[in-house]
Xaa-Pro aminopeptidase (Candidatus Daviesbacteria bacterium GW2011_GWF2_38_6), 364 residues
Amino acid sequence: MVQSQIMFEDRVKKLKEQIAKENLDAVLVSSVSNIEYLTGYSNFSIMEREAYIFIGKNFGYIITDGRYSEAIRTQVSHLKLFERGHTKKTADLFKKHKREIKNLGVEEDELTVSEHKELKKHFKNIKHFDAGSLRSIKTQEEINTIKKACEIGDLAFNFILKKIQSGITEKEIAQELENFIKEKGAIISFPSIVAFGKNSSVPHHQTGDKRLTINDKLILLDFGVKINGYCSDMTRTIFFGQVTLKHKKMCDIVLEAQKKAIQFINSGKNIKAKDVDKVAREYIKSKGFPDIPHSLGHGIGLEVHEHPSLSPKSKDILKEGMVFSIEPGIYIPDFGGVRIEDLFVLEKGVLRQITNSSKELFSV
């Protein structure tokens, strides 16, 4: 994806506007995805603390070490590089700006206890700041990239249907998916979930060594593609061999719950995400099946799960340019589960589906 320096400068500008709106003097951004969003640099590890962004009213730093300094100087010109090392510590930068910062915003979910303790040495008032909310509304370029990931996902689904046969394991299906996606120049956006039979009753089943038999009846596939930093996510439940009326009823109800959520979103403006969740959730319960044990959907972009959240406690309002999943499910222990998940973008007041694999109830 071609990204201009002006775009990243504009994102930092919006971050500063959000800082002012929340009566903060500065924020410390520690999420790798948010750092990538604000800089375009995507080589920091999520396993280690290799960088921060430190932004105030009159300053803007990217903090990292000598391993990355040359790349940052070349690729990130809109933020000042602070290279920490043996002689310079991040704390030195905090001390420098301590007097001008009364209220500091931090990403609470992205800091360790020790990091928080260190910050408390320098700043008295530390508040949670949700930098990820800036990513909830996508540009057309971002939407196009997510669409490309979805297109590869659709191809992968059609490919994997031909590989399903008695005796194959869940792990082998997952590996076939990953290999196909890599051949298309992308990577998986998360470890694929492949669940046979009763395993499908676990929403986030850990793909294992179970072999497919004619008695399993259901196959749940939940996988995603990542290309140029942006993710897709899709779930399909398919039949293997002869299924019972109960299996078919579950599929019909889940698909209808998704349709009702879509219709509700298309029915008006300023739709509350929690109300969309309620529509699908209540429909499934009205048919005598258990409550959905997860949220109805989530935003997607640089990460598989981001704003907005379509959940009972969500405070999000669905807005133009948001890309998110709608994924109702029914799960019955020791019997099986059904989930159908698609990605949608809200454009010109209408919800448009961007995962296009068939949802017809068919057997392989």
Summary: The CA atoms of residues 33 and 272 lie 26 Å apart.
